[in-house]
Structure formats: C-alpha cells, structure tokens
Amino acid sequence: MTTPTSESTQSICVAxxxxxxxxxxxxxxxEPLKQLCDDQGIKGTLLLASEGxxxxxxxxxxxxxxxxxxxxxxxxxxxxxxxxSGAETMPFHRMKVRLKQEIxxxxxxxxxxxxxxGTYVDPQDWNALIDDxxxxxxxxxxxxxxxxGSFAGAINPMTGTxxxxxxxxxxxxxxxxxxxxxxxxxxxxxxxxxxEKASAFLKKEGLDDVFHLKGGILAYLEHVPEEESRxxxxxxxxxxxVAVGHALSQGTHELCFACRRPVSxxxxxxxxxxxxxxxxxxxxxRNDEQRASYRERHQQEMLAARQGRAHVGAVFATTGDDDDE
Length: 325
Hints:
Elements: E1 12-20, H1 26-39, E2 43-49, E3 52-59, H2 61-72, E4 81-87, E5 95-99, H3 113-116, E6 119-121, H4 123-131, E7 135-139, H5 143-146, E8 149-151, H6 165-177, E9 184-188, H7 193-204, E10 210-213, H8 216-223, E11 231-233, E12 235-236, E13 243-244, E14 254-255, E15 262-263, H9 288-306
Parallel strand pairs: 2-5, 6-10, 7-9, 9-10
Antiparallel strand pairs: 1-3, 1-4, 2-3, 8-11, 12-13, 14-15
C-alpha cells in the first residue's frame, strides 16, 4: 500500500485503488459499498467484477479510510493497492459503483491475475532488471500515454486501448522471443493494474519469466531518486494532474478536453490547438459542428469556474489505470 504524499494535506483526499481477487458475489458487495460511500460523503467511481475491484474515490481522509477498511475486509483484499493524492476541490459529481465483466478490460477469457500473475518487482529493484540485456521491457500503456514518457529502451506496442495488447503480442511474439530459450519479460504501466493483468496473460501464453513493476510508474517515480532513474519524460495520469514527473511533481502537460490526450506546452503553440475545443492530434478527427459544441461547453465551464460553481457537464478524473472505456 502506498502511503499518502504531501498532496494529501489538501482539503480533498483522492485515492486510486485496485486489487485482483476472486469476488464470488459482486451483486451482494455493491450495495453496502455504495451505501457506505454515500454515508461518508465519498464520490467517484468503483468497478466491481469477479476478478476484483478498481477505481478512484475522493472525500475526507476519515471517510476514505472507512471505505478502504471496508474493502480490505473482503476475501483476499487486505493488500489492496492504494495511491493517495490531494485536490483543492471535489473532482467528482457523484458516487458510482458499477458491476463489470473485468476491472481492466482485456477481453481475453481465462485470465486470472489473482492466481497466476507474474512476479512483482519493487521499484528499488526495477533498474537491475531492465538493465539486463537479456530482458525484454514492454510498456503496456496506450500510445498517447507512452508519447510523453517511458523507460529508456522500452517497447511501445502502439496500442489504442488495452484490448489491443493480446493482438499485438500474437502478431509480434516470434520477433520478440525468437527461436532461442524465452527471455525475461518485464512490463510496466501507470499504477500496476494493466501490467499485472498483462503478466497473467503472458503466463497463460506459456512464458515463465514474466515480471511487472509493483505499484507501476507512479511508485517508481515516488521512490527512486531522479539521479538513479531510468525514466524519461513525464507520466500521464488519470486525474486532474494530467502528468507527473520524478517525486510525483506536477508535470507540464494539460489535457485536451475534446480527445482526452495530453498536450505539451509546445503543442499548445499549434494553430490547431484551441483550449477546450481541439489539439493538433484530434483537430481533423472532429467536424466544425462538434468543435462548435465543444467551444460552447468550454465557455460554460469557464463561466461556472468564475462564479465558483461546478459545471454539470465538466469532465474530471477517471479511474486510475483505467479500463479504456
């Protein structure tokens, strides 16, 4: 479990959490969890599936602790993975507890990370693993995330969603592994959930030496000193920070609210960039009518902000290491 950072001293505590565990009765778990969140004034989204729980919630630290203690009381959930951050204002409008087929969507039957995931690697041991020339390092995140930062030498599968990873692996398996004895495979993602599931997928495919970064990139950036780091660039995050750097410092990227891709300071200089409306990456994916609608929405959001109220159509943080919805 990750301990709170100094950001948690802000008025709102934000907790991104996940745990792969076999949950036999998610319907029965849903309502008590939702009621507890409502009673504690907690808002956000939690996903429940037979493979576990994933989501991000926000509220008072006391209320968050009550909810986390409740989840940890479930079978095999005592080691719930949690990352804390802070927010000055509530980043969610309501509380949702949703039942899903998967807590992070891969679309592959028979994958069981709770029973057959790869080997956890602590952030302090990650450098030694990926520095080994016999290790293949794979970034399991989506291409727009990889574009702003990754570990030096890591393979970018160029996926649009996590669903695309199995197809990419099937297509590239022979090139990656060759005909010799299978190499070690080290995988990583933002907070640990996608690479943990990807490791279970590769083990189901017959690989034995499969490793994944415990706590993901965020744990690495938090615990490994910058002078020892193999990380290059910034890490995209699924909350109001957009991107972070070493020691989880605030990054330089902002979010394009039309396409949800990160936009760098230099990319904001593009003539195709318009705050709240478009960026260079998505401008040609939208028509004039859509951009006009985004422009009107953005103006309403700016007006609401000046008046000190939340705009009901505003888009805030999604679940950490999301399931590509």
